[in-house]
Amino acid sequence: DAGVTQSPTHLIKTRGQQVTLRCSPKSGHDTVSWYQQALGQGPQFIFQYYEEEERQRGNFPDRFSGHQFPNYSSELNVNALLLGDSALYLCASTETPRYGYTFGSGTRLTVV
Amino acid sequence: AQSVTQPDIHITVSEGASLELRCNYSYGATPYLFWYVQSPGQGLQLLLKYFSGDTLVQGIKGFEAEFKRSQSSFNLRKPSVHWSDAAEYFCAVSEGNAGNMLTFGGGTRLMVKP
């Protein structure tokens, strides 16, 4: 059974560009969350999607947006990239949040 | 707002020695608590979780954690560390209801000496 799948694994973008990261949740999971993990820090919550709606949002600017599709997969979009957006972006899925989340291996974004 | 503190940034233990990683949280009600492990360049793997009942919870890989409400702590323990346990460990708290976002601590990097 595949877990959470994220693509791409790595990418390099130039400041000011836009990027889209993709996530396929674990089979049977309908809730998807996105986290940003800067080097040497713990993950920070970006937002969560359930039934194609953004259910909760962390303290991130509107440059960060997302989408969830009918098959529960999700995208994270970041516009007007800044150097400070360089981080590991983690997708996590669950069917029941209080039971914990399954995390993907992440997408390493480098902004130059 | 909820918060999590992991006071130890780095810990080094000898293989076979016991381990305790500290976690303190700040949250008004009874939180849902989690420990995750992250190997270099990888995502996070759930070790164990607590949301009610017995305050001593068992997890995978021989880990356990104890919830102490009076101390707002949820420390992770292992009686005998293996070299493969070297990784970054994160404690996290969730409100457990609507939203259910995880708030993570800064992590503790565990190094294991042969």
Radius of gyration of chain A: 13 Å
Show the largest interface. Answer: A-B, 26 and 27 residues
Strand percentage of chain B lies at: over 45%
Outline the biggest β-sheet of chain B.
Answer: 6 strands, mixed
Low-confidence stretches of chain A: none
Overall mean confidence score, pLDDT of chain A: 94
* CA radius of gyration of chain B: 14 Å
The H-and-E topology of chain B, N to C, reads as: EEEEEEEEEEEE
User: What is the overall silhouette of chain A?
Assistant: globular
Q: Between the first and last Cα atoms of chain A, what is the distance in angstroms?
A: 36 Å
The biggest beta sheet of chain A, please?
7 strands, mixed
Low-confidence stretches of chain B: none
First-residue to last-residue Cα separation of chain B? 41 Å
The number of strands of chain B is 12
The helix/strand series of chain A, from N terminus to C terminus, equals: EEEEEEEEEEE
Q: Please work out how many helical segments of chain B DSSP would assign.
A: 0
Set down the secondary structure blueprint.
The complex is a heterodimer of chains A (112) and B (114).
Chain A: E1 5-7, E2 10-13, E3 19-24, E4 31-37, E5 44-50, E6 53-57, E7 64-68, E8 74-78, E9 87-94, E10 102-103, E11 107-111
Parallel strand pairs in A: 2-11
Antiparallel strand pairs in A: 1-3, 3-8, 4-5, 4-9, 5-6, 7-8, 9-10, 9-11
Chain B: E1 3-5, E2 10-14, E3 19-21, E4 24-26, E5 32-38, E6 44-50, E7 56-58, E8 64-68, E9 73-78, E10 87-94, E11 102-104, E12 108-113
Parallel strand pairs in B: 2-12
Antiparallel strand pairs in B: 1-4, 3-9, 5-6, 5-10, 7-8, 8-9, 10-11, 10-12
